[in-house]
Sequence to fold (396 residues):
Amino acid sequence: MSAQPLRIFSSKTNLFFEGRRNALKILREEVNPSDKNIWFHVASLGEFEIAKPIIESLKSKIDDLKIIITFFSPSGLENSKDYMFADSMVYLPIDLSANAKKFIKIVNPKVAVFIKNDIWSNYLFYLKQNNSLIYSVSSKFYKSQFYFKFYGIWFLEKLRNINYFYVQDIDSKNILENYSLKNISISGDSRFSSVIKTLEENKSIEKIEKFIDNKKCLIAGSVWEKDINIINKVVLENKTKSIIAPHDITSNFIKKLENLYGNNAVKFSCLNSKGDFNKKILIIDSIGSLKHIYKYGYVSYIGGGMSNNGLHNILEAAVFSCPVIIGKNYKGFTEAEELLKLGGVYSVKDSDEFSKVFSMLDDSALRNKSGKINFNYILKSVKKNSKIINSLSKNL
Fold:
């Protein structure tokens, strides 16, 4: 608990501890261990987007199913509280033996689903003791992970408790098979289904349309400060309109952007007068609309790849047949790696490279080709996701 002193400095850190303090109490009040319970664990918002299509499909197929969702990250849970398909939603208690034992006894899940690689050893142990079926979904494995080092062999043994692995790629399947793990399928990522649903909704945002006014528009989504430094030259000097959606929408970061762009920019929450709509830069200062805003993109830049924060979801933009530009750190993000090879996504390491690629994509033939590559890749990947739904349905 060495992070405890940080609580006085960080509201997120405070939520991390306070939320966990009450998690078991909330579960006792909201969950009946005799029900047909399925437990989904996600790290944060990105992983939750993977879980959603699976949850919603299962809910539509199985009437008496109860959905329990746990989050590791405060930003994940705090921004998901209105999710209508959850019967209970809490922070995951820290992975101590006593916590895991109590949690499994209270929830008594028929099935547990760990999204991606946020897998916890004590929970695996007590799930197995409880005869719960355990799924690892949309996971990705590679040789450098600690499971496959001499010092991680203890956790590799814990992974043997998992009944079904639904991995993202053939490399992950091969690695697990090399260590004699079984029931491994390549299923891709259920976010593909989620973004197709967004595409089909075809939601229009009148204020965004009025702001763009049929002009070319750069959409910069889920950006951090290092991403802003990459795109700034184009945002300020190019005639293209720009919509910037920061990952951090706290007042401090939004204020930084307002100071940086001055009279050239307006916040989405303040977009009202004729003068506002004539401005060059729109700052999105709320959560929830970005996935619908990408449809208006001429080119999209997705943040997170210029630092160690982790590349954010490129599929939300790619589904709209839009070329995507990302930063230099994308290793381990399967869709980014594959689409870079195919030519739908472009990686840049600095501001000059971003300007060059952005100018290159002014060629409509290249831009349309890249966008089509992205859309077709998603369409092909969606077909793999039915494997997970069918298996879960059969076991519930």
